[in-house]
Amino acid sequence: MNPKDILEKYYHFAVVGVTPNQEKYGYKIFKRLLEKGYQTYGVSPIYQNIDDIPTYPNLEAIDHPIDVVVFVVSPKYAYDYVDEMSGIGIRYAWMQPGTYDDQLLQYMQDQGITCSCLYFSGNRINQPIKADFLCSILYHLMILII
What we know:
Blueprint: H1 3-9, E1 12-16, H2 25-35, E2 39-43, E3 49-50, E4 53-56, E5 68-71, H3 75-88, E6 92-95, H4 102-110, E7 114-117, E8 119-121, E9 124-127, H5 133-145
Parallel strand pairs: 1-2, 1-5, 2-4, 5-6, 6-7
Antiparallel strand pairs: 3-4, 8-9
């Protein structure tokens, strides 16, 4: 499924690494998705809520459908969430810079998870972090939609 289809078809997002720190991407992405009308769930084993919105300690604790997981955590913490995604049946992930390495991307692919790499800056998806075709397409679609 191409990125445009994901954005048009799916509205349930989980942001792994959500934080109350308004300067961090975990906060900015969470709030932007909510502002744009996407059903968005924050995932953090540390924080119980963000701006009075309840968060969840892990993906399995969310009792609502999740279509896409946005990662804003170090790769060393991502593997457990990828395992949860696989067990729950979530097949799409969006990664921020610093949240992945080649081993994690391969692991995700082996689990049947489609991964796209985005760079979020300020209040917008700003630029692709790779020059590959998929990230370039996804970037332009996100600018148009978000």
